[in-house]
Amino acid sequence: MFEHIQVAPADPILGLNDAYRNDPHPHKINLGVGVFKDENGATPILKSVKQAEERLVENEKTKSYLSIEGTEAYRQAVQTLLFGADHEVIAKQRAHTAQSPGGTGALRIAAEFIKKHLPEATIWVSNPTWANHQSIFQSVGLEVGSYAYYDSTAKSLDFEAMLASLSQVPSGDVVLFHGCCHNPTGIDPTNEQWAQLAKLCSKQGFLPLFDFAYQGFGSGLEEDATGLRVFLNQVQEMLIANSFSKNFGLYNERVGALTVVCESAEQADAAFSQVKRCIRANYSNPPSHGSAIVTEILTDQHLRSLWEMELKAMRTRIHEMRSLFVNTLRAKGVTQDFSFISKQQGMFSFSGLTPDQVAQLRTEFGIYIVGSGRISVAGMTKDNMEPLCDAIAKVLAD
Ligand code: LMR
């Protein structure tokens, strides 16, 4: 029965993680997967998370099922974080949120919902985009197109080309935007550019789907929601897939959410009933622990401010590593300009390293970078910076 099945290629990001784990190199460095590391190279559990967990263990009374969409408290907390407490969308009950297994789970449910209810829609993703986007949408049979985003010569957003591409997207199609900290480039639209994109979206009549996995990793919780909120002022309908893997460090708890925004409360009820059907047919209902942690932190003043401090510390450390990386390369005599890296946001940068250079870094130095040249700045530390920059200087000179 199974003799015809071929071995699938390794996942470009998580497959790299497995290869890193098995690499005996004594000084290996993992800049592949987007996971935050502290200055010791560890991915610690946040103090706010630990404290919330202690309370949960103490107070938990049942392990019975959650509802298909997760708890009311979690769903409200997510909406407040996305929209801000007093947003009209919340007051008019135009949005419904379902807990999901991470941001990926939210995207998968969104994909199924789109395929079922907008079967003719093509979904447009930025070029480049997160390596898993294509797979998620193609796996439900959606057509995936790409819109211009990155200028590889200027190492910046090619906004004119982006506008030109999106002006061709017809009404009824779906466009995926990275809410902040674009993965893999680290380059986001400015506030003015978000406003232009929202106007264009309203004019063209396409549906925006925000992938919002890094809220708080760019400039701050509120600042990072600017693009999404600018869109909300222009358009009546939207899908948002958000994740708490990074900003709460809850990677292996798989906690995120899918939010559907509609024109009216009635439409939101109808659309959400269909989202719940997709969930029921996939994993029935979500796990409790991760979302309970997030709810506990977001709804308690002490835990919330502790978490915001910890989030700020993570964001600041990454910004520091960006500058240190650029300065260390310069100090090692690298003449190629890497200063763009210190201007970017979030965990990632598109380094401009070629596939050959990426391969050489791995085989000669045990340094793991995604094949596209994407580096996770969050994996850099003061300790690994010197050997990392020595190796990059060497491969650039070869
Ligand atoms: C990444 O892009 O490295 C992260 O979002 C982890 C993943 O699932 O790919």
TrEMBL record:
UniProt cross-references to PROSITE patterns, sorted A to Z: AA_TRANSFER_CLASS_1 (PS00105)
GO BP terms: L-phenylalanine biosynthetic process from chorismate via phenylpyruvate
Essential cofactor(s): pyridoxal 5'-phosphate
Keyword Transferase carried by entry: yes
InterPro entries (alphabetical): Aminotransferase_I/II_large (IPR004839), Asp_trans (IPR000796), NHTrfase_class1_PyrdxlP-BS (IPR004838), PyrdxlP-dep_Trfase (IPR015424), PyrdxlP-dep_Trfase_major (IPR015421), PyrdxlP-dep_Trfase_small (IPR015422)
Residue ranges of domain Aminotransferase class I/classII large in the record: 27-392
EC code(s) of this entry: 2.6.1.-
Pfam families linked to this entry: Aminotran_1_2
GO MF terms held by the record: identical protein binding; L-aspartate:2-oxoglutarate aminotransferase activity; L-tyrosine-2-oxoglutarate transaminase activity; pyridoxal phosphate binding
GO cellular component: cytosol
Lineage: superkingdom: Bacteria
Keyword Transferase: yes
Keywords assigned by UniProt, alphabetized: Aminotransferase, Pyridoxal phosphate, Transferase
Subunit and partners: Homodimer.
Protein family membership: Belongs to the class-I pyridoxal-phosphate-dependent aminotransferase family.
Cited PANTHER family: ASPARTATE AMINOTRANSFERASE, ASPARTATE AMINOTRANSFERASE, MITOCHONDRIAL
Protein name, as recorded: Aminotransferase
Organism for this UniProt entry: Marinomonas piezotolerans
